[in-house]
Specification:
This protein is an alpha/beta fold. Helices cover 29% and strands 26% of the residues. It has helices at 41-47, 95-98, 107-110, 153-159, 162-173, 189-201, 213-221, 233-241, 256-264, 288-294, 308-320, 339-348; strands at 3-5, 15-17, 21-22, 29-38, 57-58, 62-70, 82-85, 117-119, 122-126, 136-140, 144-146, 181-185, 205-209, 226-228, 246-251, 266-274, 297-300, 330-335, 353-357. Strands 4, 6, 7, 10, 11, 18 and 19 form a seven-stranded mixed beta sheet that branches. Strands 14-13-12-15-16-17 form a six-stranded parallel beta sheet, with helices on both faces. Strands 3-8-9-5 form a four-stranded mixed beta sheet, with no helix packed on it. The longest helix has 13 residues, at 189-201. It is globular and about 60 Å long. The mean pLDDT is 96.
Length: 358
């Protein structure tokens, strides 16, 4: 079968090969035919080594498709079912799951160290234990979440990561209050979803901050009340909040420098929500006096900070009701052979989300 493979961490191009085989099918597993997958910035971060991932590997974790076969012991799924790929399934038995923090379950991460593809003489991993830049994949049954018939594969794929992450950051983690002021730094697919989440929550002002003009323009279409470049952010803070700072600031870049900017533009007693996934050696610093004196809440948000299955259902309900726009987030569509062009478009900020159709 065909799949896009990164041979070594640090390479910036994928090779589309036709000699890749999905392996590991058996009890508790399902074999999927991937129909659509989104290109998420986390895929780039895994390719360049910011996020740890053994290589060679098949990137992709934001996918949807059909069940081809189910292994022994699998219940609730059968061949032909339409599903989205959950890259962070909850085991239901660990301490995090028992506390109700299923999004912190580490069971899914354990899958990332087990090859689920192979080529002649070579084991190949799947990013985040999945790997959706491929025609077929074998995943644990809890990674395959059934979707209603009216949800297109490309919409379901987005819900599988970026939409759930951004919406959840605003709704679950920060719990944006109606009438509040919000700023979102970084307006790719996840940032746009955070903007839509803040709008759903009833924020009065939503300022989008991004260096790319096309992304600023897009942010206005998705609910931002204004959009500014990073150089204009200070002026926006002064105009909108009289210099006090925003009630909520979302950092959706994953860098300490933007997290620091976000902190400085959050009002005293306000909330900084860190959504971007950054590098382990990139340290964010605050001094002990400001931490005490300003009483700003610093809230990291992992995968939207809530039960992902409920978050999927909520995203579908909001989309059906016309409260969020998911179709327009897909700015580019390519076949698998066009994956490297899609990577370049994401690096430059030209695309919000690219749908890879398989």
């Amino acid at each position: 079968m065909r799949a896009a493979v990164l041979h070594e961490t640090g390479q910036d191009k994928l090779e589309v090969l036709d000699d890749v085989e999905a392996v590991g099918f058996g009890p508790g597993k399902v074999r999927l035919r991937i129909r659509a997958t989104g290109l998420c910035h986390s895929d780039l971060s895994a390719m360049n080594g910011v996020l740890p991932q053994p290589a060679p590997f098949v990137p992709g974790h934001e996918g949807a498709g059909e069940v081809l076969d189910v292994g022994d012991g699998v219940t609730g799924l059968s061949a032909g079912d339409r599903v989205l790929v959950c890259w962070l399934p909850a085991c239901g038995a660990c301490a995090s799951c028992k506390r109700g923090q299923t999004h912190l379950c580490l069971a899914g991460f354990m899958n990332a160290g087990t090859p689920n593809f192979k080529r002649p003489g070579v084991d190949v991993f799947g990013f985040a234990g999945t790997g959706t830049f491929t025609e077929e994949a074998v995943v644990g049954a809890d990674c395959a979440v059934p979707i209603p018939d009216d949800v297109p594969f490309e919409i379901a794929a987005l819900i599988g990561c970026g939409v759930t992450t951004g919406l959840g950051a605003a709704i679950n983690t920060a719990q944006v209050e109606a009438g509040s002021s919000v700023a979102v730094i970084g307006c790719g697919g996840v940032g746009i979803s955070a903007i839509q989440g803040a709008r759903v929550q009833g924020a009065a002002q939503i300022v989008a901050v991004d260096p790319v003009a096309s992304r600023r323009e897009a942010a206005l279409r998705f609910g931002a009340t204004e959009a500014v470049s990073p150089d204009e952010f200070g002026d926006a803070k002064q105009r909108i909040t009289a210099g006090e700072g925003f009630d909520y600031v979302f950092e959706v870049v994953g860098k300490s420098v933007t997290a620091r900017t976000a902190y400085e533009n959050t009002r005293r007693g306000g909330t900084l929500c860190v959504v971007g996934a950054g590098a382990m050696d990139d340290n964010f610093q605050v001094n002990m006096f400001e931490l005490f004196f300003d009483e700003k809440r610093i809230l990291p948000s992992m995968y939207g900070g809530g039960d992902v299955l409920r978050s999927y259902e909520r995203a579908i309900a909001l989309w059906r009701a016309g409260r969020i726009d998911l179709e327009s987030m897909i700015t580019h569509r390519v076949r698998l052979d066009g994956i490297n062009d899609a990577l370049d478009q994401m690096r430059t900020g030209e695309s919000l989300r690219t749908c890879i159709e398989l």
